[in-house]
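Chapter summary example: a protein plus zinc ion.
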Amino acid sequence: MTLATLVDVHEVELPAAGAAQHLQCRECGFRLPLGADYACQECFGPLEVAYDVAGSVSRASIESGPPSMWRYAEFLPVDAQASHRPGLQPGLTRLVRADNLAEALGVRRVWVKDDSGNPTHSFKDRVVAVALENARRLGYRTIACASTGNLANAVAAAAARAGLRSVVFIPADLEPGKVVATAVYGGTVVAVRGTYDDVNRICSQVAADRHWGFVNVNLRPYYAEGSKTVGFEVAEQLGWRLPDAVVAPVASGSLLTKVDKAFREFVAAGLVAEHPARIFGAQATGCSPVAQAFRAGAQVVRPVKPDTIAKSLAIGNPADGPYALDVVRRSGGVIADVTDAEIVAGIELLARTEGIFAETAGGVVVATYGRLLADGHLGSEDEVVLLNTGDGLKTLAAVEANCTPSVTIEPTLDAFLASEAGGGR
Ligand SMILES: *Cc1c(COP(=O)(O)O)cnc(C)c1O
Ligand SMILES: [Zn+2]
C-alpha cells in the first residue's frame, strides 16, 4: 500500500467505532486516526487499535448482551449497532470440560474451546465480523483476503450475507474441502500457484492498486481484534476467571497474542482477578518458524518454506511471530511443534475421547499439549484450555487412511454374523 492510498482514505471524515479511539504503532507508539492503515508512518511497525473502555462494563452487562461475540462490543472497534446488523453472529462457542481426554493424558482438568461451532466452522468468522464492520465504516464495497483456507470460507460467507462482493486469494494446493466451502458462497476465488506467503505478497500489491478491504492486510488492525473474543469467552465460561494455561495454534501468531490481550483487558476492567495465565504456542514441525525462534532464544523469526498437512497453519513468514514470542516468554509459556504423524494422532485422540472432530490445527494443539506434558513444561495439576480452531470435515484427507469401514459385507444377516463385527453380543 502506498502513502497516497493512505492519504485518500484519511480525507474522508471517519465515524467513530465504539470505544476504539485511534490506531497505535506497536513498536513506537505513534498514533493515527481509525483509517485503513496497517503500517506506522514513522517506523513501519504494525498498528493496533487502542481503546477507552467505558467504566460501565460489568459482568452483568456482558451476560445480558447478545449470545454471540457481540456481547464484548465494548472491547472491540465496532459501534453498538454491530449486533443488530444481519451478520453471521459468530462466537459464544462451547467450552467443553474434557474429562475423558484428561484421563487419557493423566491430568486433573483440561478444557477444549471448540470454535468449530462457528458459522463457517472456524474461529475466522470472529475476525471477519470485526473487519467487515470496519469495511462498512470505511466505505469498501469489495472484501478480500489472503487465506490459508478458513479465512476464505469466512470472508466469502460473510460477504454473501452482507451483500458485498468478495475476492479471496488462496494457495492452489489447498484442501478440496476448503475450496468447495468457499466457492459455494459465490464470490471470486483466486487460486495462486505458490505458498501462502506468495499469496500474501500479491494481496499487498493488489491492496495498493484497488479500493478493496483486505481483511488481513489493510483492515488487519481491526481483524486481529476479533480474536480477543476467544479469550473473553474462555474467561466468562470458566465462571469469570483465567485458566492456568492456554495452548493456541500459531499461523501468523495473531490469535495467540490476542488471547493474551483479552485476558489483560479483562483484568484491567476488573472483570476477572489477576492470575498468571501462561500462553503456549503450537506449530507443525513442517512449518515451525516461531517454535524454532523460541528454542534458539531469538527475537527475529526466520522464514521457512511450509511442508505440512496442517495447511491452515502453513505461514512460513508469520507477521505476528515476534509478538507471539514476546507474549509466550513474558507469560512463562513455550512454543513447541509436532510432526504430521503426531497431528493425526492428536485428531484421533480428541475424536475418540471427546467426540470432537478437529481439523489439522486442532490436532496440532492436542498433540503439542501431550508433548508439553511429557517434557514437563505443563503439569498434571495445571488447568489448561486447548483451542480447537476448526472442523475436521474440512480436512478429511488427514485421517482418511485410518478411517474406513470396520468391515464391508454382503446385505444378509449371515454375512454380518460371519464378519469380524458380528462377534460378541
Ligand atoms: C487462521 C487459523 C489459525 C491461526 O491464526 P493466526 O491468528 O494467523 O495465528 C489457527 N487455526 C485455524 C484453523 C486457522 O484457520
Ligand atoms: Zn511506529
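Key point: Residues 25, 27-28, 30, 40, 42-43, 45 surround zinc ion (ligand 2) (CB under 6 Å).
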